[in-house]
Design brief:
Length: 238
């Protein structure tokens, strides 16, 4: 709605989109939004279409359908798309690792929906990842060689990989970027500070066994490289 107010002001639209991605450098959906708008012949019509597509994102439904019955899943923090799917499943046990103080809130939300869930302290991340049937991670942004997810995701993925436990990367609509924009995201992340002080971290594609996205569940991490928007050169400036 804010961007619609800039209809006819292309320079203002470019500046606004640049500010959006600079303030939220690891939000793939905002990069996707900005790129789609800046490369559209009619930005206002494109914004309307993007709003409809976001509301209709089927990723959560695919995750809901793909999980087996009576499985135990491990999640990190409070992943939005994953949580929406788990709330609707009453036959799944959830081990929620308390990262950034979000795990306890997710557990309370799941309990209100009669979903079996346990809050795991950060010190128990490795044990939780090794004791579940599936590790569910959620990508904030993704590219051909991996994805960014909340801190703790890489450690959970590494434990699961060594224990031969499936690692599913849930990449909702708009999270997968083309190569140049993905490289720009990684570059900004590297310059943002020490890796151990950041809210997101890189999870290599080699640790990911499956990807859940708008097209459903796919084997391997190859689907992360399927960009959902064109390259917007304006966004590569700083």
């Amino acid at each position: 709605m804010a961007l619609r107010g800039l209809r006819g002001d292309h320079a203002g639209l470019v500046t606004s989109c640049l500010r959006i991605v600079e303030r939220h450098p690891t939000s793939g959906s905002l990069w996707w939004l900005a790129a789609r708008v800046l490369t559209a012949t009619d930005p206002n019509a494109e914004l309307t279409q993007l709003a409809h597509q976001t509301d209709a994102d089927p990723t959560g439904d695919h995750l809901y359908d793909s999980l087996g019955e009576d499985v135990t899943v491990c999640v990190i923090g409070w992943p939005d798309v994953v949580a929406d799917a788990l709330v609707r499943r009453g036959d799944i046990a959830v081990l929620a690792v308390d990262v950034h103080g979000e795990g306890s809130g997710l557990v309370n939300r799941l309990h209100r929906s009669d979903v079996e869930a346990e809050c795991i302290p950060l010190s128990g991340l490795g044990a939780a990842a090794g004791a579940c049937d599936v590790v569910l991670l959620e990508a904030s942004v993704a590219g051909m060689d991996g994805a960014l997810a909340v801190t703790g995701s890489r450690a959970a993925a590494a434990v699961a990989y060594c224990a031969e436990i499936p690692v599913w990367m849930v990449a909702g609509l708009g999270r997968r970027l083309p190569g140049p924009m993905w490289s720009a995201v990684l570059g900004r992340l590297e310059s943002a500070g020490s890796p151990w002080d950041l809210d997101d971290e890189f999870v290599p594609a080699g640790m990911i066994s499956h990807v859940v996205g708008p097209s459903g569940l796919t084997l391997g991490a190859g689907d992360l490289g399927r960009a959902e928007c064109p390259v917007a050169p304006e966004l590569l400036r700083t």
